[in-house]
Amino acid sequence: MPSGLNIEDVPNASDGSLPGVRINMQPPPGTNTGSAWKFRANGNQEFGDFTITNVSSYTFRFEKIHFDARQGHPTNSAQDMDLVYLSGGSAFPSNLIRVSTGTEVPDLHVITDISWPSSEANTSVHNVSASLAASFTNSTAVRLGPGERASFRFRFKNHGNDFGESQIDNLAISGTFQDQNNGFALIDPREQYIKITDTSFVGTSYMATFMSSNGNVDVYKTFDLQDFGMSPIASGVAPGSDVVIDSSATERNAFYMLVPAGMPAP
Question: What pTM, to 2 d.p., does this model score?
C-alpha cells in the first residue's frame, strides 16, 4: 500500500462502513469487484504494509490484530501467509515496546502465520484475531507510547503462479489505553478533557478560563502550529477563571496548547 494512505483510500479495500462487523469478502454476483485488499505474486504485490499511530496522550497496550485472509485459488494462490512487525528506520519508524524487556519488538518478528492445506476449498477464509502478547515464546504485553507508531507487513508466500490472487479484509486492531503517569492504570481517553471557555489579554498577560478532567495543566506555545518546544512555558497551572497562562505575551501572534501536567510535549 502506498505510504501515507489510509487503507480505505486504496481501491477495493474495506470501507469500514460496518464497524465491529466482518464484511463479506465475496464480490457481488456477476461482478469481479469486491471490498478486499488484494495481493498477487508479480511485481512485489505479495506484500502489504500498514502503520498504526497512537495520537492520544496515553500509552496504548496493543493487544490484537484482527483480519480475514482468503486464498483465491487452491493451487495458483499463495499457500502460506504471515504477519510480521517492521522495526525502526526511516521507512518504517516504529517503536512498539515489549513490557518484559523494555526494548522494541525485533524486526520481522512474526505475529501470526497461516497455511492453506490442499484439502481446503478455494474460497477458504481464515478469520484471525492474532494476540501480540502470545506471539512471544514468553508471553509479554506490548505498548505503544503517545505519538509513537508501529508498522506491520502481510507477506503472502509460495504462490502457484504470478496471477494467483489472495485477499485481506476487515483489518482492525484492539487494545486498551493506560496512564503512563499513574502506574499504567487503565484509562479511557474519551473521558479526559481540557475545555477552554473564555480568553482575555491584559498588558503582557494572556489569560484563559478553563476546566480540566485531569487537574493541573502544562502550557505550550508555538508560532507556526508545528514546533511547540520540548518544555512548557508554564507548568502545573490550576484550572479556574482568568488564569494567566502566559505572563510574557509580547508577540503579535501566538498559539497555545494545554495538556495534562506531566504529559509529553505536543
Answer: 0.68
